[in-house]
Amino acid sequence: MHYWLAVVSAFSSSITSVLGKFSYTLGATVTQILFLRFFFSFLIALVLFMGFGYKFKFKKFFIFGSLGIVNYGIAAYSFFLGLQYLSPAYATVVYFTNPIFVSLLQTKTTNRKLNFYNAVAVGLSFAGVLIANMGEKAFLQNESLIFGTIMVLFAAFVNALFVVTVSENIKTKYPNPLENSFYTFLGTFIYYFILMSITNGFETLSSKFLLSGFLLAVFATFVPLTLNYFALKKLQSHTLALLMPLELIFASVLSAIFLSEQFNVLKVLGFLMVASAPIIDITSIESQESNF
Predict the structure, then answer these.
(1) CB atoms within 10 A of CB 189
(2) Which of 34, 145, 180, 257 is the most exposed place for a label (fewest CB within 10 A)?
(3) Which is it for the CA torsion 33, 227, 279, 167, positive or negative?
(4) Cut 0.85: pTM above it
(5) Average pLDDT score over the chain
């Protein structure tokens, strides 16, 4: 049962790039898409926050609101900015270098050192991105491909910083995921509200953007986080991480069905290399832990 929750979470997350791309076809800007996404996410979290009778605590809001701005503000904005110039499946592949960034950053905060398998995983991941990039160039002959790739890679790196920062110490101090989600989405909503006001985004905000914004909030934000939380009650973190590459497959299939995205041998090979890199990395960690 808990394995299926993790699989459904991966599928739910895979629609992020597809819905984001669809929103662009409607004329929405990056800021407008993300404002609506986190406006609805905040409303869902607010209903649960009030329903469970939680009391507002400024310290928790400051911590998780700030973390939300880093991850869902800076990282998400960079991802969607890059998505303007990339196909959804390719953008998902580039972003999936995230576990490798986490692995590298953890060596700076823990006693864990990179071994041969870790190094192979890092090299395989970035080689996969380069090969997939070559395949993507067959369909997009422009310099924007490079800019889009850099933006999504930056988003993956910032998200990795967020993951490493949210250490076990913070999880132990503030263990309630629903309460933490409320503060995270509140901080992110305020961030994008200010950004929308500065950029005059409200003036061109259209009701036709609401559906995709709501779907992004539910299926790409709230549902994956909730399902992962329940899955982790029974599954180990490394088991969940091994299931994450399924998101690449789902994103590719959805892109082919709804956006008629084209594929070639180089793109598929690059996708497989990036997907296999976290498996190699996490398997090596599991092997190390079994030796102790």
Answers:
(1) 24
(2) 257
(3) positive
(4) no
(5) 80
